[in-house]
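>> Question from a student workshop board

For tomorrow's exercise we were told to take the sequence and the ligand below, predict the bound structure, and bring the output to class. My setup keeps failing. Could a helper post the expected result so I can at least see what it should look like? The ligand is iron/sulfur cluster.
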Amino acid sequence: MTVRVSSQADLLNRIEKSGIVGMGGAGFPTARKIQIALENRPTVLVINAGATNPDCNPDPTLVAHYGNAVRDGVCVLQRILDPTRTVLALNRAVTLENLDCWGQLGVAIHRLDTTFPEGEEASVIQQTLGMRLPQGTYPADVGVCVLNVATVFAVAEAVLLGQRPSDRLVAANGRTLWVRFGTEVRAVMGGQLPIRICGRWSGQPARGDEAVDSSLFAIWSGPVRPPLPCIRCGACDESCPLDLPVELLVAEAISATVGVISRACLSACYECGACVDACPSDIPVLDHLRTAKRTLAMEARAATVADVSLRRFERRTRRIEQDDRDSAKNRHQRMQRVRRWEETAEIP
Ligand code: SF4
Ligand code: SF4
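>> Workshop helper replied:
Here is what the output should look like for this input. Compare the format with yours to find the bug.
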């Protein structure tokens, strides 16, 4: 099909029908993301290929070896979004060929530092566009549409070849492989346990029977050293790109006494994992932070449920009191009628 003569609605419809979701880890439906960007125009389109997670970096491989398909995907997205600028955020270590082809599309290449966690979305926006995403806002709120390069590749396949995504590039302990969706992660790693998925530092422990899907971009397995006590070195604080008091957050998360300020800090954390990488005691810092986040979310949900229950109980109490008042009033009126009848009735 020819992208330039297809309507924006037709192209967007093809993306929606193919069921593509964000392949950088978030798994948000891509058609919906584009729709939101269209509602917040003008838009800057940022293609994120800057992931710097150690041992889990399939994005630069995609740009380096499948550049034509990625450029086709960029063409489709430019046709739909009509962005004011298009930026490709790329890890500095990647050698890019056919620079002219990127230039003809009007794509500015922005080289990112290779230090972890430079490839995170908020960090990419700050580095490529020089704007800091305010806490609690999404890129679309500031007129930016960030798409992972694997998503752009899937868009090209869906729109130009009519193929739904059925496999993806996955980084497995430093190797980059095409893996079909539905394959167990344990099978990808040859049965080796323990396993972490979606990043050695920023990922989470896996049982092994989880299936590879659109948003699973990396699998790591290897010996895990048991954590040692915290030596209060502050390396986690220094490594945090958001300058969060990580040492304090971890101490509070472990003792389950998260204070008010720490709650705000926890919600700001975007789980990049830099603090885990920095910790000399091998403390699974991010796992503790995630547990604390889950606990706070459950508390918030429980508070909402309790609030709703309390309001229902108060409504019921008011209804019963009103019923009692109504029946007392009716009884009184009946008694009044009986008295009036007795007073006026002629007794033979
Ligand atoms: S606290 Fe959150 S944002 Fe800061 S380094 Fe750790 S994971 Fe990254
Ligand atoms: S880096 Fe690790 S050992 Fe150092 S203060 Fe943070 S949690 Fe403690």
